[in-house]
Amino acid sequence: MSREFVFWVFALVCVGSAVLMITRRSPVAAALWLVNTLFNLAGIFVLLEAHFIAAAQVLVYAGAIMVLFLFVIMLLNLGRMTTSDIKPITSRLLAGAAGVLLLAELFVLRRVTVPAALLAPEGSMEATLAAEGAVNAVAKPMFVSYLVPFEITSVMLLAAVVGAVVLAKRRL
Amino acid sequence: MLLSESLGLSALLFTLGVVGVLVRRNAIVIFMCIELMLNAVNLTLVALSRQLGFDGQVFVFFVMTVAAAEAAVGLAIIIALYRHRDTVDLEHINLLRG
Fold first, then answer.
1. A22 touches chain B (CB under 8 A)
2. pTM of the predicted structure, to 2 decimals
3. ipTM of this complex prediction, to 2 decimal places
4. Phi and psi dihedrals of B24, rounded to 5?
5. Among partner residues A7, A61, A119, which is closest to B2 by beta-carbon distance?
6. Cβ-contact B33, B13 below 8 angstroms
7. Ranges of chain A whose pLDDT falls below 50
8. Does B81 lie at the interface with A, CB-CB under 8 angstroms?
9. Domain spans of chain B?
10. B residues 35-74 near A, CB within 8 Å?
C-alpha cells in the first residue's frame, strides 16, 4: 500500500471521529471519539517520520490527558446527559458559517510557499534519522538549542500541579 | 511528500475544533475541542518539520507539555465550578455577563 493511501485512511478516520466528537451528546462518547482522533493523528505522525512524537502522542494525549478527562466526567457524574448541550439551530448555522470562513482562510494560507533560505538541506532529515535514530534526532536540539525553555517547562509543570491541587481542593 | 495534504487535514481539524467550541455548551466538551485545536497545530508543526528541520518536533513536545498542564488546571477549574454551581453548562455560568 502506498503512503498516500494509508495517509488518506488515517485522515478520513481522524476527521470522521472529530465530527462525531462534536456532535455526540454524551461527554463520555465525545471523549472516546477524541481518543480515536488522537490515535489516528499518531499514525499520521508516523507517516511523517516523527516516530518519537507519535509515541509521545499516544502516551501523553491518548493516554494521560484523555484519562484525566474521563476521570473528571465520571467524578462529576456527567456521563448521561438528559438534555442535549448543543446550541439551537441559529447558533449552529452561525458556527458553521464561521467554520467555513476559517477553513477558506486556512486553505488560502496553505498556498504560501516556504522561503528557500529557511529550508533544511535536501535529504538532511533522512540522513539525521538514519544516523542518530528517532529519539536522538529530537533530543539533540531539545537539550542543546532549547535547554532553557525545557527547564522553564519544568517550572510551569510544577506551577500547574500546585494550581490544580489548590483549585480542586475543597478547603485548604 | 504529504505536506500540503497534512496542512489541509490540520486546517480541517482546527476548524472542527472551533465549530465545536461554538456549538457546544458543556464545559468539558468545549475543553476537548480546544485539545483538538492544539493537536491540529501539532500536525502543522510536524508536517513542516520535514522541510525545516527537527526544531518543529521540539515545539510539538513543548505544546504537549503545555496541553498537559492546561488540562490539569482547566479540569480543576471545572471541578471547582461544578462544586459552586452544580452544573458545567456554560449557559448557567453567567455571573460576569451583566
1. yes
2. 0.91
3. 0.92
4. -95, 160
5. A7
6. no
7. none
8. no
9. 3-85
10. 35-36, 39, 42-43, 46-55, 57-58, 60-62, 64-73
